[in-house]
Amino acid sequence: MSIAAVEQVASARTEPVGPDAGRSLKAWIQLSALAIFAALSAPRWLGRVYVADDLGEFHLPIRDFYSRQLAAGESYDWMPSLFGGFFLTGEGQLGAYHPLHQLLYRWLPLSGAFDIELLASYPFMFAGMLLLLRRIVGSSPAAWFGALAFTFGGFNLLHFVHPNAIAIVAHIPWLLWAIDIALRGVSPGKRAAAELGIGLLTASQLLLGYPQYVWFSLLAQGAFVAWRMCGGFVPWTRVAWLAVAVALGGLAGAIQWLPTMTALSTSMREVADASFANTGSLHPLNLLQPLAPYLFQTRVVGQNTHELGLYFGAVPFVLCLWLFARRGEWGRFRPLLHAVAVCGALALLLEAGEYGPLYRLQSFLPLVNRFRFPCRAVVLVALCVAVAAAVALCLLLEIVADRKGRRQSNDSRRTAPRILWAVVLSSVGLAVVGPMIWPSYVAAAPLVWCGPLLIACAAALVALAEHGARWAVPALVVLTAVDLGCYGLSYSVYGRTADLQEFIESTSRPPGEIQGRVAAQNIGGFRTGDRMLLAGMNRIDGYAGLEPAKRLDYRQNAALRLGGVQWIWQAASNQAGAPRQWQRLDASAPRARLLTNVVGPEQLANLGQLGMDVAAVDSPLSLPDSEPGQAQAIVDSPGRIEIETTAPARQLLATTESYDAGWLATLDGADVPVVRVNGDFLGCVVEAGTRHVRFEFRPRSLRMGGLISVFGLAFIVCRYALAIRGQRRRIDSDQGSQTSCRARASTKS
């Protein structure tokens, strides 16, 4: 089959129902999607912010810092209030250089920018999924339904607490749609535009700073390309240009991923053992969730509901089973459904982590072997389920349109009801047996029986629709919206929003004026979030995805004093569940001080006995005996510290700012080496007299990444411009040839 013929088939719009019925069904789906989005965005219009889980404990505090720095026109790459100083851009989850984030947080108040960032991904994802399904499935109502099932499915609503992850996932359907045009498009102009879109979308994903989901996106893209190449002839040149577009997008995103690679190399994650990658594996019991979404108290078997959630909705699940029963009627969808089944099964094995064989292969891949929570690969399963559900609805609509059932074989009429009965009985059986087997983990009875009720309703509606009840299909849509909305929003939104000012004021604060840093001792193995940063506190510890590796043990008071900590938020007693209280820590180091007594790094473990006037350094320093001079910080802003020193002789300047290889130092304008003081802190050697020291955070990875991004973006635009120019030349040449032919024919005549 020629490429032109393939494109005509791919772009055909097969409507299995009449135009009036199709418009009516699309209206039901559109209203359902709008209802879920309205419920999702309702707190925004009530003047509240979303604070569930990581939203309030991590994302909101770092975006507060980001917003203030943008407003002041100052650097935001280094965040001094977290971990005693922290390479925030390298951590990644801020997405500091993404254009949308720059616009939102530069021009809008924090609460408005934050809420819009969280909400914008969903309509973007819905539109991309709609275009993709219209192209590969054909039926407009089915495409609308698949977009509804994926966008507001269990994964995407539960992971509302991970905004960067959802934003990256929202790019996936757009990328697959553009890839299909780039591989199978007839028009060179459309293919060039698709390649431009692929490059920009890839760069956008990387700029959002969550590499694990970019990895999942690449897996989805690779599987899609493989399916298209197996399904028909695709010139290798198009595949090559597609790879070039992705590579150029990767270059354009270098301003984010290069700093992330640097931050990873100095993080706790880099030194973690092999078991780290298997943290968050999907326990096999979680495979019961599609049948019993509310069986367990936390809905899942494991720690995190949003990470381990495996519920796609009762209707999409039942439709997929019904579709399997009717596998003899797949017809034109057979290649697509085979690919979906294989990819879904592989993704399920991938998210099994330590419980399956596939995830171990990632241990041989650089960077990928540093990812944890393999259960996050459920996003690929959710994508496959949404595509299969769209195909199932398309076939179901064809049956509804043919009331006499001329397309139904006797075998399919028997098999389909049989599997519907089986799924209902299985769900009821779990509700009955579950409390007996896992009495301490099972939820309350009303919640447990919600699962069988949803499954039974979905199965009954599918059966009624199959027998010609037209009203049953809109009822399936409404049930899907109610089911998914209640499941996702009850966890990630409702009951977990707050007025921003009240949220800040409710944060526990030390008595009196806050000076110096604070520390929050971990209790029960769980880390304290960063909410206190919103109240203006500076922490020596904290919470982040790429937590920097430290040499000192900040459970010891000696290390806390070296970091300038003056208050500790800790438990009142050693008893479990004991309330926390603030404890004053005296004799902490000032912001900057001069020292004359230095020892080697092997003495780090004895700093508590050595005293505050001794510093451990990595390289030997020759300092004369003298009285310590004076040091005063005159500029203290994120990424820039200026200090005036007065010393009788050559001495070591030590600060309480965290050391990082990205710091540069000058003494009276001349470059001097940065010294790592006491394992974790920033310093340098100053000469006698009154001197001006300037520390500036300018990491090489950020500078190189910015330069590479500019070139990558320029190459993307140039590639598109050259492709368009080449197309115009071909058109002009063809027109010229036709004119010459007509002229010769006229002359002969």
Distance between the termini: 39 Å
Number of helices: 25
Quick check: average pLDDT? 87
**Which structural class matches the secondary elements?**
alpha+beta
Based on CA atoms alone, the radius of gyration comes out at: 30 Å
Strand percentage lies at 5-15%
User: What profile does the largest beta sheet have?
Assistant: 5 strands, antiparallel
Runs with pLDDT <50, length 5+?
1-14
Largest sheet strand order: 11-12-18-14-15
Portion in helices:
40-55%
> How many strand elements?
18
The coarse overall form would be globular
Give the structure's gist in a few sentences.
By secondary structure, this protein is an alpha+beta fold. The chain has 25 helices and 18 strands.
Give a structural overview:
The protein is of the alpha+beta class and 749 residues long. Helices cover 53% and strands 11% of the residues. It has a five-stranded antiparallel beta sheet, with no helix packed on it. A four-stranded antiparallel beta sheet has the order 8-13-17-16, with no helix packed on it. The protein has a three-stranded mixed beta sheet with strand order 5-6-7. β11 and β12 (640-647) form a beta hairpin. The chain is globular and about 95 Å long. The chain starts with a helix and ends with a helix. Mean pLDDT is 87; it is low at 1-14.
Descriptors:
749 residues, alpha+beta, 25 helices, 53% helix
